[in-house]
Fold these 3 entries.
Entry 1:
Amino acid sequence: MENFDWTSFTIKIAVKANIEDLYQAWATTGAIEKWFLSEADYQDTTGNKIDNNQLASLNDTYFWRWFLYAETESGKITEANGKNTFAFTFAGNCVVTVKLSEEHEHTVVTLTQSNIPTDDDSKRNIRLGCHNGWSFYLINLKSVYEGGLDLRNKDNRFKPMLNN
């Protein structure tokens, strides 16, 4: 594990969906709740809640909640070009950057989480835990946008499981 990068990771998935729809999947509350969250709120820089179908912008903030978990996440949009790049703070001071590119009739979603602290708790919970979480949610993004099947567990009788 000498050369293992504890400070960042990048994962990719190809989704047979158009780039505009996948950008909205990250940048609008209405779409992000279809594959990732039970509740999402984006607020503009004046603190007003953004409409469900309106794109979040640079310096907007978010509040996110997942099915079956009491934990929530809040942060700030650090990049939002309206086309193919969307980035936000996550898990403290980490930054998640999502880049979209078109390739062979697919949109490739490239997710990088960076600025991960290197203390033991962050190595376990952020570097390894977030990698596992993002891996599942990117697979669910693909499932929802290619076939309409949401793989998330929403039944509180079953936890913890791979799909929650």
Entry 2:
Amino acid sequence: MAKLIALFGGRKFRFWYQTLPLKQKKMMLSWQNILMMLTILAGLGMFYYISHLQETPITKRIRFIAFTDEQFMKIANFEAKLQENMKENLFLPATHPSYIRVIQIMECLVHKNWALSNMKTQKWKVAILDSFDINAYVLASGHVFVNVGLLNFVQNDDQLAFVLAHEIAHSLLGHAAEKVSFAQMIDYFVIIVMAAIWAFMPFDGIALVTQVFYEKVVQILLDSPYSRKLEREADIVGLELAAKACFDVREGSNFWKLMQFHEKLKGTETPEWLSTHPSNVKRQELIEHFIPKAISIREQYHCNPLSENDPRDFCLFSFLHILPFHLFFFTLPFLIFAPFAVSPFPSILYFSLSFFALLIFSSLIIWYILFIFPF
């Protein structure tokens, strides 16, 4: 609504300005008047920004928050109800094995990190969605949504714990309120610039093209980088939460290798500069950097020693479960032995074709390992 007001207000100002005498136009656009207007706007903006600075829980980073906790919780609860109504048909019952699996990991993460002040005040609610999308997300209200696709995708509970810890970290750090606040702050600048564009561009068509270009630049240069920054922070804090809960933190690195491999297979990789999330390669490298610290945290919390067999050394072979060719393993025996059901002496040609199919399959596996797998 504010952007529409800025658009029509700027356009109205342009038509009004064009009717003014030349002397009055020059007076309005004098550098003294422009400087005075910019100073007033900058002063008001700076006062508003400084008066809304807060310290981020856990990381102690200073950030801008435009809402009180009570105001944002109203927004969060409304969003939670909206999500529940939209996803109601996808909810799995509390007796489902997937639900029990997630609840057990969530309880472990919450219990082992109970010393955190935000953990004590947050009320968690878990829902498992019958969706094959590889995704999980958390709302500021404490609602955690996990897709069945993610549960089938991860190789073990340690990887699942890492993902859930990442989502818990988003909630504990108040990233939802921070993202909305940052978007609101950017909108203030966008509205001012939009009003200026529609006020001073000579034609509506030029103003529209300039506005679209400007909004895209803002998204690429401001919105997306800020979102990636919050994702990295949640990765680091989530790894620490998983470490305190005595999970194998090395599996966090494997998870991002797996995601990278999966996206290459699907051809769904997005350039990082166009995405709201860091690339899987960057996230895997970030986790690798903080794994030594996470292992020391496990030792401080008297966790059982990690296995000497580092799972990162064997993740290459465990990736085969996401290859589309794995179905070939089930069909190959049928192709080879089905003729025996008809005749005890299948033709040499059939054996040759079966061997050729096996050779092609093996070559594809080797090709993926050499050229697609992220070393």
Entry 3:
Amino acid sequence: MLCACSALPDSGPTERQFQKGQKDAQARGFDFAILPLHLPMVDRINDTVAAQTALPPIVASRRENDLIGPGDVLQVTVYEIGNALFSGASANASGSTSIGMMAGGMSGSAGSAASTLMSGNAMDSKLSSSGGAATPTSLPPVTVDSSGSIYLPFIGKVHVAGRNREQVGALIKSLLARKSQFPDVVVHVVQDNSNFAVIYGDVKMTGKFPLTSHHERILDAVATAQGTMHPPNDEIVTLTRAGTNYTFPMRDIDGDNRRNIVLQPDDTLKLVYNPLTFTVFGAANKVSEIPFEQPTLTLAQALSRAAGLADYRADPNAVYLMRYENNEVLRRLGVKTSPVRMTTPVVYKIDMMDPASYFVAQRFEMKNKDLIYVANSRSNKFYKFFGLISTIIQPGITAGYMAK
């Protein structure tokens, strides 16, 4: 009868077969460790995972989003006093405002106050020596070429890329100093074509979006794209900056503001739907791939999602969780790891007959694509064999009873 039991099909190995399988795997060159789970081990695992959340410095860095670049369209306005280089018209003819006339037109204490205010201003001294009329001239809009330069009359080629509009205005003013009488320059960005980032993938609206001096972050970009197509917990974010990719789950951004990175021009954001799931095999009441449906999930919650262990088939002493674990975690647990691989296959074993194991299961956090295996009880095959015999002889018993 025992020989017949061994020939029956099964859903997976028993605890003894699992241990034997580990030795056979070592002989074939595929080594994995079986580690009994306990509270101190779970604490070391959690501490190591928390220590691995630091961001690379290049991602955490910040760059200004108001710098001029190729493709931008600029409006340059030159203010001149006295003999104008760009316009021979008088202040009144050109429609400009004469600051000196404004001050002189005031009477009484108001005029005196205005004169006092203007006398402390450097521009006022220029007005006094030149007749007092400030003439503004708006030059035609100019586009920054691919080399980062613009061309202006009487000046020529001016390199403006990498500067903000105040710096460009100061540069043009210095270049006009020997050509114009008391010049001042104001630069406006009419069309900003260089301070953009791109978002695409699993969002409702893909495309380019502008970056401003507000310093937009990843979540700002997602909001601009009208949100994600699926729950954020199941989204993977890839930030491409200067040819380097940085990938992390979107749920980490909600829990750690350091990952809500300030975006820079030419950054690219890609969102990919990658649902968090774990798989259950063996003597569980529900054998399937099961979604997390929440940011974090413990082993206790995972077992409950699988409807627990099957009473007549499961060996509660041998519940296994299999994953490719980070080598840094395993080194802290005293497990030898490969120097050339980042992860190592490992099996965590938990004894559900030990009441303390339920506290361990509440502390142990699941990872995406973890696999839970509930070993079959050694008595399982006997029950299967008994059920098979009952199926065979039951019709005969029924027929004999009816023949009476």
